[in-house]
Amino acid sequence: MRRPSLLAVAAPVILVLAAAFAASQDTWPVHDPNRPQPRIVAPGPAGPPVPAPADAVVLFDGKDLGQWTDAKGQPARWKVENVHMEVVAKAGGIRTVRGFGDCQLHVEWMAPEPAKGKDQDRGNSGVFLMDTYEVQILDCYGSATYADGMTAALYGQHPPLVNACRPPGEWQTYDIVFRRPRFDADGKVLAPARMTVLHNGLLVHECAVLTGPTAHKARPPYKMHPDRLPISLQDHGHPVRFRNIWLRELE
Ligand code: MG
Description:
Mean pLDDT: 93
Number of helices: 1
Radius of gyration: 20 Å
Low-confidence stretches: 19-24
CATH superfamily: Exo-inulinase, domain 1
Bound molecules: magnesium ion
CATH class: Mainly Beta
CATH topology: Jelly Rolls
Number of domains: 1
Strand content: 25-35%
Structural class: mainly beta
Distance between the termini: 55 Å
């Protein structure tokens, strides 16, 4: 009888270890300071705005906030100048007039220069899909915070695969592919929300499964919501800038 190859013996062990490793990625407590920091990868220099494709819904082209309101449905009060908009502290977050579900979203943003503050208090804003699921915006260029709250983290749940930050004062891009959660008529989750994200062109999430809404110091369960909800941008009190925001609705 032939002896089994080393690979045949080792493969089941490797599979078990791989599964345990994958599971451990999801079992870190929220905002655990011991969760490993993603490695830093310089993304290369910023480019010009990425043109919106023919089937895109343009949400911000640098001219006005006509596609946006504040949280109460009143005109958005963020500053618009030189083809960008800027968070006005205490004006509150802004959200799109229209609601969206599954989509491919392109956002360009810039952290304030000179940088001020540290940890979560440094160039903080955020992009919320369906006003509920946040891709964190933060200045983590030479500045650390808990891994699940850093730049491009799915806040409180998934750290990015790498830290692809550009320095403050330079334009950065997020390209987000979002699949909304599916609920049955009773609100039972049939499929969780998923996100694939590129930060400055680098893959930082690949089909990451959300545990529910993103939240501070909590991982709340899903709550049934409509199939379409606004995209929102966070006012965290820091003058973060945005330009060139567009979206493609997915089938
Ligand atoms: Mg934020």
